[in-house]
Structure formats: structure tokens, C-alpha cells
Amino acid sequence: MPAPGVNLKINGERLWDSLMEMARIGPGIAGGNNRQTLTDADSKGRHLFANWCKAAGCTMGVDTMGNMFARREGADPDALPVYMGSHLDTQPTGGKYDGVLGVLGGLEVIRSLNDLGIRTKHPIVLTNWTNEEGTRYAPAMLASGVFAGIHAQDWAYDRVDTNGLRFGDELKRVGWVGDEPVGARKMHAMFELHIEQGPILEAEGKEIGVVTHGQGLWWLQITLTGRDAHTGSTPMNMRVNAGLGMARIIERVNTIAMDSQPGAVGAVGQANVYPNSRNVIPGKAVFTVDFRSPDQTKLDRMRARLEAEAPEIADALGLGFEIEPVGHFDPVTFDPTLVKTVRKAAETLGYSHMDIISGAGHDACWINRVAPTVMIMCPCVDGLSHNEAEEISPDWAAKGTDVLFHAVVETAVVVPS
After folding, report:
1. Which end of the chain has fewer CB atoms at under 10 Å, N or C?
2. How many beta carbons lie within 10 A of that of residue 359, not counting itself?
3. Taking a C-beta distance cutoff of 8 angstroms, is the pair 226, 282 a contact?
4. Cα separation, 292 vs 96, whole angstroms
């Protein structure tokens, strides 16, 4: 039986109310959220989500990485489930929608299926993936990476935050260590709804982004070692300035990215100098380079060029130099059949849409390794994300979730009543 017709849509007001209620947990200082992974706020948000799922008739499973799986039964319990989901954790100064829309949009799909009395052959499972953001614990998409076999669980448990607190210890402390082995679940398909986190959809006047590919990424951490010295009394020609070396390498990162156009980006978003005093020349600098491209060859070429040229910059200034990769995933091609399903859903609903490449990493990028996967995007105002000023409209949220609803129901197969 085909997916529901254009007249069947989710409850947009209920979805928006849920987004606003979740946003009350872990409020930021400027209207957004600070609900970092495995904090007390994250745990509180998880409990609210679990209660909502229980009220919607779902059973909840949790694996040993804290990934949450809310299951709505299908007519055929042996059929592989259709998965939806994203993440509830945020950046330290994050918005109310990044990741959260994909989780609560999935919850609204389940609620709408219940309201409409729609039964599906395949079970439907809604997921909250642990530590997608990777801010408190690097790398990003940590738990979905363990699920997909990219990372070992013991290695993930040993990640530490800036206070030296282990991921595994904090997962236990907040009470979200489940008993399911990570990665044991099998999927028929996986859908992730997300805000774009970029300006393209809004600029093009499109309501839906059909995500065909995801950019690959290299995070390269550089450590420069110089010599601490007084800023006022040390002659310029006698300085070994790690901050200066960092500045010149940052400029080189920009040059490498610009020379790799089109379809490549590069920047340094995390940078620290030591001892970080007003009147001390930095004796040490630690910073992370972020290169991205949907072209594997171009991505690897940017890394290789930096690894060749950055040591020359450091050497010219008399600095010690170290570089190590701290995050990576290859460019992603999402499942062509599911891409067509999403596109068809947008067309059925009469929503304007376009194919788009995800510029950010998402849990779907790892799950794509082990199951057919696709992403759906809605616009965000000015493309602003990872910022408390991140904003979307209720209409954008509802339309993105409508597309998720139709695509998931078609994939899960409606059972005639």
C-alpha cells in the first residue's frame, strides 16, 4: 500500500511545543541551549524524551554507549525496523534545533501514526544518539561511530573532557549505561531529519533539502612548542613565539582551502595558547584544523599539503611541531533508493525542494556504513547554527517532519486495516 496521501500531515503545533519544552532543559545564556553530552542537563532531557516515548506506546532500549531506541511495534515483528533519529546533546552555546528536530520530529511521526491509526509492517524505531556534537568528548558522532564499528567501545569510554573526566565514568554517573551490546541492532533503513546549518535552502527559497551526499572531514590537531617570555622585555629577534606560528598556519589553512575550490572548506575553530597571559609570549599553541570536501581526493590533498607546509612554517620560527588526526570520515553517498523516497515525499506534499550536500557531519554518516541511510533537511535562518541565535520557523519544522513522516511510512509499508 502506498504512503499516506497529501492530506495526511503531522501535528505541527504539537511538534513545536515539544521543541520548546525540551529547550527549557539546559538553557543557554542568550536564548539557546547548553545541554552538553552526559551532563545533568543531558540526563534530564533524556528522561523527558523517554517519558514522551512511553506515553506514545513505545518500548525503550538503551545500549552500552547510552544510545536510546524507542520502538513502535510493526505488524511483522520479524521485519527489520525502519529507524529515525538524531541527537539531543548540544554545543556549549548551541541552538534549540540542531539534532533536537530530528529526535522530536521522529517522535511526532510516531504520535501522528498513533493519532491516525496507521499500522506498518516494519517496526519503527526512534533513536537518540549519544555525543553527536563531540564538544565535550572528541570526536563527534562518537556513539554512532561505535555502533557502526568505526571506534572500539573501550577507546570511546577512555575519552576525557577538559576536566579529565572519562566518558565511561560520566555515562555511568548520569545513569544511562544500557545493557544492549552496541551495534547488535539491524536496520531496514535509517532516516535523519536535520536543520541545514547552512544558508543554501533559505537563499534558494526551498523548503526541503534532499541530502544526496555528505562531506568528508579531517580534523588535524597541531601543537607548536616555543618559549614563554616577557612581551615587554624580549627583543623581537629573540622570540620563539608559538602564537605567531599558529597565526601563520591558520593563514595557510585558508590559502589551502581557497586553492582547492570549488567544493572545499577549511578553518581553525578551536585554538589555545599557553600560558594565555596578557604579558607573556605564548610558549605553546594547540589548535585544530578542520578540512572538509565531498571529494575524497581533494580532501586528502588538503591534508597532505598542510602536513608538508606547516612544519616549514614552524621550523622557520624555531618552533617544535607535532600534528595528529583527531577526527575523520570519508565523503558519504546516501542510499539512492531512500533519496528517491524522500524526493517523492516532498513532491507528493507539494513542497519546494532541491538536492543538497551536507556540509556538517551527522550520525547518519556513520550509520550509512551499516544500513541504507538518508537525510532530510529544512532551512535555518541565515544558515546560522552552533550558535544560540540559531532559528527555524514552525512551518519549516512541520514541513520537514511531514516529509519524514511520508518517507518513513512508505518505507515501513502500511498494513491495511
Report:
1. C
2. 17
3. yes
4. 25
Comparing C-alpha atoms, which of 381, 334, 82 is closest to residue 211?
A: 334
Contact 389, 30 (CB under 8 A): yes
The alpha carbons of the chain give a radius of gyration, in whole angstroms, of: 23
Strand, helix or coil for residue 41: helix
Instruction: Tally the C-alpha atoms within 13 A of residue 163's C-alpha that lie toward its C-beta.
Output: 6
3-class DSSP state of 258: helix
Q: Does residue 417 register a pLDDT over 80?
A: no
Comparing CA positions, the residue from 127, 135, 128 lying closest to residue 159 is 135
Q: pLDDT of 333-347, one tens digit each? A: 999 999 999 999 999
Residue 78 CA, chain-centre distance (Å), reads: 30
> In degrees rounded to 5, what are phi and psi of residue 358?
-75, 125
C-alpha torsion angle, residues 100, 102, 108, 112 (rounded to 10) = 180
| Mean pLDDT rounded to a whole number for the chain | 96
C-alpha to C-alpha distance for 175 and 347, rounded to whole angstroms: 43
Spatial contact of 229 and 121, defined as CB atoms under 8 Å apart: no
Average pLDDT over residues 65-77: 97
* 293 grid coordinates: 570536501
